[in-house]
Amino acid sequence: MTEYEMFSKDEVANNTQPKPRQLNRRRILIICICIISLIISIVAITLIIKFAILKPKQKETTITTTITTSLSTTKTESSSTMSSSSSTRTSSSTTTTTTMTTTQQSSWSTTGSMNNARSYHATLILPNGKVLVTGGNINRTYLNSAELYDPSTGTWTTIGSMNTVRTRHTATMLTNGKVLVTGGLSDTSDHKTAELYDLSTGTWTITGSMNNSRTQHTTLMLGNGKVLVTGGFGQHGYLDTAELYDISTGIWASTASMNHAREQHAALMLSNGKVLVTGGSGSSGPMTSAELYDPVTETWVLTGNMTKERHLHTTSLLTNGKVLVTCGYSYSGYVKEVELYDSATETWSMTGSVNNARFLHTTSILTDGKVLITGGRGFIGIMNSTELYDPLTETWTIIDSMNNARELHTASILTNGKLLITGGRNYDDDLKSTELYYPL
């Protein structure tokens, strides 16, 4: 080996060994890269928590426009929740659905559960802001129990029971601060009895009985201080009779009968003081007819027919004075068509259809004038879906669903503007759960 070769090998060997200064630089570089990576990871995790985890739930819904025309012959037979009837009918119908795409934040939360599960019950807002729930049934057992909901604590308290078990009854707030409960169904028969709840003493007392036993009827507080009860089903079948309750005497007196006997109808007092009764079920099945009661003359007059026959529907008095008639059940099944009644012209017109046909639902006028529809039963079974109706655009928008699917429930607008949903049924299970809707 030459001297030159020996030198070259030694030099290469010496050059391949890192010098201490180079090692320090590499270590510093690696540490800097690690620190930068750590900072980037922390920032990324923070952004994910802020925008993906803590961000309120949103729901984007696209509603498609459909126009369908059908000619069909349909035979329907009612379920146990409706009057027993069957019919064959050939019909032609055109359905239009408005297209909208919206984004809504989650607006439902659970609140305290009732002490008793119940459906077919009645609820009422008391002058002190609490909510009174009466009667109903649980697993086909009829109840006489009553409870109070306190919005300030979100809790329910059991109070004194009614004197009689009853379901499918009504509860009406009187001008003297007491609550009138009428009729309904017991273990043995329909009721003609009525009783009063005194908020100041927390007690129930029997008052005068109606002239006719009735269930699935309506009651309304009139402008003259009397209570009007209409229709329903009694011992002799469908009723066309109407009665007036005098608060000062506790006595019922007959008033003029409606033009058509009906149960499972809707009644609503108009801004002019008259009472509008719509639809319902009679001896021939679901009805299109509507009539007006004048408390001054104590007479009934027909006021045109709705376009769609329906029972187990709802009516709502809009801020513009018109009446919104929503959903229900008809000869052809679940109804999605919605109609408007103009009391000034006494005429009917169609408005935007709901996205999901349903009956045994609720509708409520919110503080902003929009109408909220909740739950019920439709083509997909018992529903937790909800929709908002805007009277200005005459359109329905799907919003966040309730936490529980339910039918035969009740809805009450609290003094704080929130909506309280109570009880109802989910197939074979009666519910004790309640929930609140927060208007956005």
Automatic annotation (TrEMBL):
Keywords: Kelch repeat, Membrane, Repeat, Transmembrane, Transmembrane helix
Transmembrane stretches, start-end: 28-53
Composition skew (Basic and acidic residues), residue ranges: 1-12
Chain spans, region Disordered: 1-20, 70-112
InterPro entries associated with the record: Gal_Oxase/kelch_b-propeller (IPR011043), Kelch-typ_b-propeller (IPR015915), Kelch_1 (IPR006652)
Entry-linked Gene3D superfamilies: Kelch-type beta propeller
Name this protein carries in UniProt: Kelch repeat-containing protein
Record organism: Adineta steineri
